[in-house]
């Protein structure tokens, strides 16, 4: 008879231990058979568990972009086009382009149609001031606005890009400058620039609203307007043919204290961030890496984005867009508290109630 397991066997139960509910004592032989069977099963189960973890789905992020064709908002688009980068950060980005309609992007965030909405910063800040339960996880870059005036006007007032900054601003007095109208971030920036030398848009410029860049270029060439304030690329035609002169650029830090004023923000609902802090961290890390890759190889890394979003853009305009925005992107996708809160001061000055709700300290969450 096979001996009862436990007698001189360190692997088996004690001699009097009942091995199963049927009351049968486990023999030494049956224990050896069981051991040979159980060990491989446990190993296979462990391997299956590890495999299932390895092949787990990456975190899906429904990412809304107020304007995918805007280079200032391009970094998430580049992440979405870079499958290797997404795999590295274990995310799957699903972009939704709102084609310039920032309000719709915010509305989609409120309705949980997207997880993230990246927009011009003041759109997100105004929503928070009005009660939206949003947090910001990134600021993509600083200001890129530039003032371009007619070459003839520049010669008449004795101004070029080498003229001392304050003298350049003072020389704008009474000129007919066009751009986005009162209440817009562009207008607020222009007024802040003028205030540097004790002037204002209302009192010291002959300003009128115009947002058609083709009309801006033709107006500068034909002398119908003296100049324009706009983002890079829009005025590239007059810069290229020499009929226009860039006299001020925020992207190149002509006004150093304005170089970190945030242009764009990445917002999400507080509830989504509370439930997905690690996904938010990986999303921001992907943005940071995308900017680093762009700076390391501007032409190469941006090629897929240009093909997807701006295939018809003339090369002269593309080079302006790429070069100026590359200077303005925040390498850490955060910027500064002062650059964020510049807008809180502007909103407060404009009479916006509860603007402080959207301050850097109350809104921005470091997800690193």
CATH architecture of the largest domain: 3-Layer(aba) Sandwich
Low-confidence stretches: 1-27, 48-54
What is the CATH superfamily of the largest domain?
Answer: Periplasmic binding protein-like II
Q: What's the total count of β strands?
A: 10
**What is the terminal-to-terminal distance?**
68 Å
Mean pLDDT: 87
SS field, number of helical segments = 17
CATH class of the largest domain: Alpha Beta
Strand content: 5-15%
Tell me the number of structural domains.
3
Gross morphology is globular
Major sheet summary line: 5 strands, mixed
User: What structural class do the secondary elements suggest?
Assistant: alpha/beta
Residues in helix, %: 40-55%
Order of helices and strands: HEHHEHEHEEHHEHHEHEHEEHHHHHH
Read across the widest sheet, the strand sequence of neighbours is: 2-1-3-10-4
Q: Report the C-alpha radius of gyration, rounded.
A: 30 Å
Tell me the CATH topology of the largest domain: D-Maltodextrin-Binding Protein, domain 2
Brief summary of the model shown:
The protein is built from 17 helices and ten strands.
Description of the molecule:
The chain is of the alpha/beta class. It has three domains: 1-56, no CATH class; 60-142 and 266-363, D-Maltodextrin-Binding Protein, domain 2 (3-Layer(aba) Sandwich); 146-258, D-Maltodextrin-Binding Protein, domain 2 (3-Layer(aba) Sandwich), CATH 3.40.190. Helices cover 47% and strands 15% of the residues. It has helices at 28-54, 75-81, 83-89, 102-110, 121-129, 151-157, 165-170, 185-195, 201-204, 213-222, 236-241, 270-275, 277-296, 298-309, 315-328, 337-349, 360-363; strands at 59-65, 91-97, 116-120, 134-139, 146-150, 176-179, 206-209, 227-230, 244-249, 264-269. The strands form two sheets. The protein has a five-stranded mixed beta sheet with strand order 2-1-3-10-4, sandwiched between helices. The chain has a five-stranded mixed beta sheet with strand order 7-6-8-5-9, sandwiched between helices. Helix 3 (83-89) runs antiparallel to helix 13. The longest helix has 27 residues, at 28-54. The protein is globular, with a radius of gyration of 30 Å. The N and C termini lie far apart (68 Å).
